[in-house]
Amino acid sequence: MQEVGRMLAVLGGGLLIIGLLLMLAGRVPGLGRLPGDIVIERDGFSCFFPLATMLVVSLLLTLMLNVLVRLLNRGP
To answer: Where exactly are the structural domains of the chain?
Structure first.
C-alpha cells in the first residue's frame, strides 16, 4: 500500500504544479496572441486555435523535461 500512496502523492503534486502553471500562464504577455494563432470570427460564431502558442509551450515543456530527466539520471 505504500507504493500506491507514494504514487498518488506524486501524481497529486504533479497536478498541483500543472494547475499553478496554467493559472500563471494567463499572465504571460503575448501568450495566446502570437502571429501563428488562428482566429475565425463570423456572425454568432468564433473559433480560436492557438497553433503558434501550442508549439512554443510544447517546445518549452520538452526542454524543461529533458533537463529534469538528465539531472535526475545522474548516477553517483
So the answer is: 1-29, 31-76
